[in-house]
Amino acid sequence: MLAGALFLTACSHNSSLPPFTASGFAEDQGAVRIWRKDSGDNVHLLAVFSPWRSGDTTTREYRWQGDNLTLININVYSKPPVIFARVLTIAVI
């Protein structure tokens, strides 16, 4: 019984996210990678899609300050040129 209690204590679960996380997955068309950085009340998320064969790599950047989404930045890296789209200051109602 004591061994079981020690095991449960050693395997305690912390549900809070670390300040930096990274993840990704592969699908039929390409690879997706996601990075998230928390800093106080700010959250920065970067998602990248890279196609396996044809197509363009696309990045999407999102930033939050508190509950407000303050930036969406989408870049499509093609040959030629690179396409940039940016939206600033989005208020959550």
From TrEMBL:
Q: What name appears for this protein in its UniProt entry?
A: Membrane protein
In which organism is this protein found? Escherichia coli
InterPro entries referenced in this protein's UniProt entry, alphabetically: DUF1481
Per the record, the domain of life is Bacteria
Q: Which Pfam families match?
A: DUF1481
